[in-house]
Amino acid sequence: MKVGLIATSLTVPDAPFKSAEHLFKLSGGNTGNFAFVNAIYRHLAPNVEIFPWHIQPSVVKDRCDVVVIACANQLGRHTDLGGIAKNLDAMDLPIVALGLGAQSADASRDVEISAGTRKWMDVIAAHAPTRNPNIGVRGTYSLEQLRKLGYADSGRIIGCPSNFTNPVPGLGAMIRKSFESAAIERIAVPAGLHLWTNLQKIEEQLADLVDAYNGTYVAQSELDMLRLAREEFSEISPDDLEKLNAYIRPHLTRREFTRWCRRHMAAYIDAPSWIAAMTKFDFVVGPRFHGVMMAIQAGVPGGVISHDSRTTEMCETTGIPFVDARSIGGPLRAEDLKTMFPFDGEAYDRRRCELAESYLTILNDASIGGSEELKALGSTGFGQKSDGQSVAGSDISICPAIPTLSAVASPN
User: Fold this and answer.
1) What share of the chain is helix, strand, coil (3-state, %, to 5)?
2) Are residues 377 and 249 in the same domain?
3) What total number of domains does the chain contain?
4) For the segment 15-73, what is each residue's pLDDT rounded down to a tens digit?
5) Are residues 208 and 296 in the same domain?
6) Do residues 362 and 251 both lie within one domain?
7) For the whole prediction, is pTM greater than 0.85?
8) Are 39 and 161 in contact (CB under 8 A)?
9) Which of 61, 76, 173, 391 can pair with 103 through a Cys bridge, CB separation 3.0 to 4.6 Å?
């Protein structure tokens, strides 16, 4: 079966010879997208071909048997996917959507979606390969929002596909061993965004850790952040460069700040190079989920400073350690990171097995299958405690058991 994967780019091989704007566009506006696109591609290979979001429907219909969509946080008032809905409908193929998330101001509020995005959801639901769920969502909140929007039979929790990039079944146990024994000598920070003004003091302290621990400050989004990492300072307006300077290193002069960027900033053109770079660090901490996830997949401990509902949901679902940004009162110190972000490696591994099995169920229902690596993750210890008892309803300290759709969809 030939799979057409609708996604942003897998990599940007010509990025060294192109501008930051080129990298920004091909990454879909955030290099974090490389993380889950790479994972989905690996899980579907070799019978998969990537197509851009606005591909002509006839091309996909002629060359593929099923469509898989690499989703992000499309469920929210910030999107209008009516044009894409029309294209998907014209492909007239079975559809699977993976990694869909709901985004609102906070998890206590319901999402609102535009008429175009509702049409997009209608098309995905209507083209389900079977009567079983064909939408893999990020977590409980996103699944609940599907129910409230009228798609109660369409969703299943899988977390983020990037969680299954590293095929080692005992990844969490391996990280836990490193977590307990290794000293923190190098720190990487997946950088935030200067528009997140409420995080400025935290971001400044994270940059302090980069300075003090021979670190790297990883840009993901937006364009001017990538320009800093690529040393395209002349492409940034003087006013915007001043704002970036004040947000990240307010005590440095302009000249000192650009030198700091040259010394410490980086942006990656795909997931493999990103993961490889993270192996050089002892801890990775910052406000970007996928930046920390790339470290976890490299076998490196990390923690997310969560500042919105979508980030919290993904951490809760996957078992990635996190703290709410609003709870950080004192200075961030390297010696406190392990206490701030405790990591239960065994719980992470059990949870990852459960999520992988849920992910595989969606693929199997669409007759896609999945890679042997993904199958191994789904079958290794799935649903079993060390004493052989089911963990389906057990109390895992990092993250609760995956709720069934019937449990989430039942009336209050």
Assistant:
1) 45, 10, 40
2) no
3) 2
4) 999 999 999 999 999 999 999 999 999 999 999 999 999 999 999 999 999 999 999 99
5) yes
6) no
7) yes
8) yes
9) 76
